[in-house]
Specification:
elongated, 3 helices, about 10% strand, SDR family oxidoreductase, about 80 residues, two-stranded parallel sheet, alpha+beta, SDR_fam, NAD(P)-bd_dom_sf, 2 strands
Length: about 80
């Protein structure tokens, strides 16, 4: 990854597994529930979870963060 250059920032969000609408008939509710139990919080991530991280990174509060990739995956990789 290249640098952001003087005065620039390059924070990155890496959203993990998320779920959206499950009423399309394509999703297996039992399978989704089984995977959700693998997350420390017991639920799938949502697009809003990832959006909150991006919003923080773009805010003044996240202004000191640069050149980092921040996982937003609810601890799934650590819990497996």
């Amino acid at each position: 990854m290249g640098g952001a250059g003087p005065g620039g920032r390059a924070p990155n969000a890496a959203p993990g597994r998320t779920t959206v609408r499950t009423d399309t008939g394509d999703a297996d509710p039992d399978g989704l529930a089984a995977v959700a139990r693998l997350f420390p919080g017991g639920r799938w991530g949502t697009p809003e979870d990832a959006a909150r991280l991006v919003r923080f990174l773009c805010s003044a509060d996240g202004g000191w963060i640069t050149g980092q990739v921040i996982d937003s995956e609810g601890g799934f990789q650590r819990a497996r």
